[in-house]
Amino acid sequence: MLLCNHQHIQPEAGCDEAGRGCLAGAVFAAAVILPLGFRHPLLNDSKQLKPAERDTLRVVIEKEAAFYAVASVDNLEIDRINILQASFRAMHLALEQLRQQPGFILVDGNRFVPYGTIPHACIIQGDGIYASIAAASILAKTYRDEYMQQLHSKFPHFGWNDNKGYPTVQHRNAIREHGETPYHRKSFRLLPDELEMDVDL
């Protein structure tokens, strides 16, 4: 069973991101403040859920959360500041959009850039421990999947409706055949190093 809020005087927000390891597209992050005692039998780390379960939970979270926000940082900014900093930036943007600022922040993972003076804790695999982080992971994942579905309609060769921009064989073969798009992260290794077949004699 996932843990709910710590008993802070001010509410706590769970934060998580989606799309850090992708070769294309923006990174998304969400911040969620759940009401005290919130429970849902399906709520878990978004990666453990089927797409239909995530979609069901997104509706529940958006209806039941005290406050929530979703933000993104695009591939151009990712290339400019690097993916780790872009992930933190997306989380900060989501926190900024909350209509009530939290008294404490729970972050999935082991690193975070402090957000103002609000204390935080980094929780490795926190999306499987804290309900607010799990809720944030679901919102970040479902919003990003929708975004990649939209990009798929512009660039159908890459299979982004299925691989969501992750480095699958299908995705990398499409990069070899069709080249890069304006949405690819140029700072990432889009194709693995291959043996040089041409030798200058």
Automatic annotation (TrEMBL):
| GO BP term, pick one | DNA replication, removal of RNA primer
Name the UniProt record assigns to this protein? Ribonuclease HII
Q: Tell me, in a sentence or two, what this protein's role is.
A: Endonuclease that specifically degrades the RNA of RNA-DNA hybrids.
Report the domain of life of the source organism: Bacteria
- Homology family: Belongs to the RNase HII family.
Q: Which InterPro entries match?
A: RNase_HII, RNase_HII/HIII, RNase_HII/HIII_dom, RNaseH-like_sf, RNaseH_sf
Q: Does the keyword Cytoplasm apply?
A: yes
For this UniProt entry, what is the primary localization, expressed as one broad class? cytoplasm
Question: Which one of the record's GO molecular function terms can you name?
Answer: manganese ion binding
HAMAP family recorded: RNase_HII_B
Q: Which GO terms describe its cellular component?
A: cytoplasm; ribonuclease H2 complex
A Pfam family hit = RNase_HII
Q: Which NCBIfam families does the UniProt entry name for this protein?
A: PRK00015.1-3
